[in-house]
Amino acid sequence: MRECIVQYCLFQRVALNLKISRYIVVVWLSFMVSAVGFTSCGDEEFGDVDPDVLPAVVSFENHIAPRMNYYCVGCHNKNGQLGNAGGWNLEGYWQTRLAIESIEKVSFEEKTMPPGGARRMTSWDAALFRKWRDEDYPE
Amino acid sequence: MIKTLLRLAKACKTDSYNVTALAKRDCPNFATRISYGYSPPRELSFLTGALFFLVLEVITSGVLLSTAQALPLYMVRSGRTCDNCHTDPTGWENPELAWRKCSLSCAVCHVNPTGGGMRTVSGRFYGQATLPMMKSSHRPWKDKNHYLLKFLESKKRGTKVYDLNWGKVKGDPSAMAFDQRRYGGLNADPVVSLSYDARLAFWFPYKKAMTFFPMQLDGNLAVHPFRYLTIFGGVGAIPKSQGGEMLLPRSCRPDEPDALCFSRNRGVPIALKDAFAMVHQLPYMAYFRAGRFLPSFGLMHDDHTLSTRRLFEMDQGTLHSRMMGAEFGFAANYPYFHLGVFRPNKSDGFLDDYSAVDQTTSPDDRPPLIGVNGFALATSFGIRELGWQLGGSGMLRRRGFGDGGDTSSATVNWGVNPWFYKDSLPVSMLGEFAIGQRQREGDGKAVAVMGLMQEVDYLAFNGVNLRLRYDFGDEDMSVADNHYHRMSIGGDIFFLPGLSLTGMYRVQKNAGPSASFVMDGFFFIRSWY
Question: Which residue of B51, B80, B202, B287 pairs with B280 in a disulfide if CB–CB is 3.0 to 4.6 A?
Fold first, then answer.
């Protein structure tokens, strides 16, 4: 082992270690499997929040704009860090209203935005967006 | 000084538990290590063998600017890396428990006793002499070939980095202060210390253009004018989402002059992060501190986006996670305990405005320095053995609904270090399970939240670490299909003291009818002292 080349050393070491550590690996994998087995116990559907606790009027100014600014506009604006990322400028009422279907899709269905490890909107936010859309986009 | 050491020596001889055999078994090259560096005087041999240890370090991760963090990996792995502190365990006897500094706890390597940021002399020495692949000291004898670049292996134990620590504490140092003669010339108990942590991130979203951004820039100052007392302060750039302002070059649009091709975000980018006064270097490695800092809760993993951090408002990248309060703790050899009482901060998440308490919540908001009305309790405890560790923690927050509402959280964390038991098995595993209750935005309903992470690391060569990590998160267990599973694979390369590269590729599976996958990768270039 001392004389072997670097790559061979690595493979030999890995093989040796896996042989030795099979019990440890089994225990660890069992943790992994049990973890994957965790799923939500909830029965509420996504975004299915009691409408009685939602604001009587969900307005762009009070409810939607702060969320857009927090989660989206940092990149999706004409002077953004990424330069109007993806060609989407979501800064303002009409920009948000016209893009609402895409916003809901990537934020609440696909959950791909905001990207990376950034904080994302919750089911509560989804309920607010849904009510705002259903009530014809109050300003 | 000599009187103090002699007093300690007398205490050591009375201890019935002798770990010399343990040391010889697990670190068999220690006897040969003397030839590489400092050899302690005969009359101090038992002391030098009993003092100190391990390792942690701070590096970190996250999205955008975040703060320095300890790496729990080192806490687990360092149970094997005895040579960081033990130069000569021959003739080693254990002092009585109260005077042992032998611990895997954060306080051994960090000025902040719960980890992260400025390092003590033990942490600095580990980062310079043991961690990197180049300029590192000799490894234990069974790891002699554990080098990727053998020709750059250092031939002697020691450090080569300029010391950013000055002064000598007036009078004799405390009996629990680090031994000045042990760390290759580094100042072991300085009056003034400076440190920094900086990271530059390159992010590669799937099928999209790469972008880069400075992710961290923290500076810390510690003043230790008298024995037992340290005053600590840290400032740093804060996340863009919390008011940080970055000015970065970007691609110009056709109708834009070149001079305007910079991005700009809101606010002043620098903020006070941690500030506390601490009485420390007490028996049992006990301390008491008061000020603003991150409570001791769970494992402060290098990835602050993990569900075990973020879903429990312990994302160390935000200012909201730090609280004003007081904390007591100790790390008596293997057991450790921390308990703190705090004035809570507002939630670091987006607070719904339906409660009409706060209509102005926005990304520009920063938490008030002294928090909001209410109280918080945080505790963590457990045992950190050399080959394994098991711990738990709990936290309560009681505050107004408009500030984020009440939370109750608990975690169980564990670590296994097979390397400690098998020289040919440089594998370390750690994990954490967290569960809690919070008030849902809007209706205030108490809902359960859960997070879990598992990680396995393989030290392929000295300074080359491979990592596989899984994490799971469910922000609201009463709602179906809003959880996620995420698998990450990558690793770290520690080139030189204070310089490393971390890369990870992540695949996240979101639950729900569409069951979407999100894939991305990133690199961090890290520099620290």
Answer: B287
Which residue in chain A is spatially nearest to B468 when comparing CA positions? A32
Residue A114 lies in domain: 51-134
pLDDT tens, position by position, A75-125: 787 765 555 566 678 888 998 999 999 999 888 888 888 887 777 888 788
Query: Do A81 and A30 sit in the same domain of this protein?
Result: no
Q: Do A24 and A64 belong together in one domain? A: no
A17 — pLDDT class (breaks 50, 70, 90):
low
For residue B484, list its beta bridge partners.
B473, B510
Distance from CA of A98 to the nearest CA of B (A): 23
Q: Tell me which chain A residues have a C-beta less than 8 angstroms from the C-beta of B422.
A: 20-21
Q: Is B161 left (phi over 0), alpha (psi -120 to 50) or beta?
A: beta
ipTM over cut 0.95: no
User: In 3D, which of B372, B393, B462, B430 has the Cα closest to residue B114?
Assistant: B393
Q: Same structural domain for residues A23 and A91?
A: no
SS3 B315: coil
Site of tokens 């009585």 = B96
DSSP string covering chain A: --SS-HHHHHHHHHHHHHHHTHHHHHHHHHHHHHHHT------BPTT---GGGS-SS--IIIIIHHHHHHHTTTTSSTT-TTSSGGG----SHHHHHHTHHHHHIIIIIS---S-TT-----HHHHHHHHHHHHTT---
Which CATH number is B421's domain given?
A: 2.40.160.10
